[in-house]
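Risk mitigation, structural track. In case the binding assays with fe (ii) ion fail to produce interpretable data, a predicted complex structure has been prepared as a fallback.
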Amino acid sequence: MQQRPAEIVDLKKDYVEGHALPRAFYTSREVYDHDIAAYWNQSWLWAGHVSQIPEPGDYFLFDYGPESIIVVRDRDGEIRAHLNVCRHRGSRVCVEQSGSARSFVCPYHAWTFDLSGQLRAGRAMGPDFDPGEYGLFPAQLRVFQGLIFVCASDSPPPIDAGLAKLAPLAEPFGLDNLKIAAKRTYPVPANWKLALENYMECYHCAPSHKEYARSHTLKAPEQMDRLMAPLQERSREIGLPVEEMDQTGPNAPAPGADVYYRRYPLYPGYETGSRDGHALAPTLGALTGLDGGATDIQVGPLNNFLVYADHLLGYRFIPRGLQETDIELVWMVRGDAEEGRDYSVEDLTWLWHVTSLDDERIIRHNQSGVNSHHFRPGPLADMEWGITGFYQGYLAMI
Ligand code: FES
Ligand SMILES: [Fe+2]
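Fallback model:
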């Protein structure tokens, strides 16, 4: 359990339910450090996809705040996650963002760790030194249909029951057979919570996202309701279950164990999230066509996926500093799709590129207003219900 700084205890008292968080949650260095230690390090984080490390020795790093996690396929083909901190004097053991390795040799004094994290040799450490005591600290790992989640804590939020419920709903998308088609980072000078909160509500979509609002009904709940029944009929036809699942906020079995699944309609004329409404890539998994819907999947409070019938977007908001966040988007298509023949990166990324530029702008302005000493948290709208759910888990965990 993390020690709670006195300031956090006081701040929690200032929070009024149904309102935004008090200013210091977005401006205080102490809160930020505590966020990493008590929230990010205790949360499930989407690190990547199995297709990034097909062969033994393949690895990539997943970094946030001051932390770094090595995700690697070991000699036996098992995926493992290690904290990227040398057990000698703390250097990063692995400094390349991705690659293939036979072992990890610390660049400082050359302690050598095998792919499973064991220390093979500590150079010139004398006869009494037991390398068995100094393996890399493990991170927790779950591979859900090809999506790799890690958690730096020994006691991660109990997500397994939620994932088991999600499994049959997500199955038809064939998530384990995807490949990354594009990845883009939009750095925003704002606290990570403002970036995440912006993603959790579509109250801003109508005024802020011209292109997105043309195709997606999320910004207009009454239109979404009206188009839901016809969508569900089409979804069934292409082989998608139409159930919803909401284990977030007050419905989560434990703080941090949120899982969410809901498919909602695009406007007539849009088969997928594209500029002209037409398909962007081959249909995913076992689907037999495009139903004109989009699925929101959330695993833990920090990991969001938007799944169309022909591609998937992974969304995450990675803290790099108190008011430095990377909005990171990963576009994925079916594993056998070929660029140029089956999809074009420019067309595939168009919608969420322009939408993310809008988001970067509004989040940046949000932070600069919140930095003012005149900021007083105002009431949230009904359409911002997701934010209240996030606060509930967040405040419980910090
Ligand atoms: S810090 Fe890694 S070997 Fe010394
Ligand atoms: Fe947005």
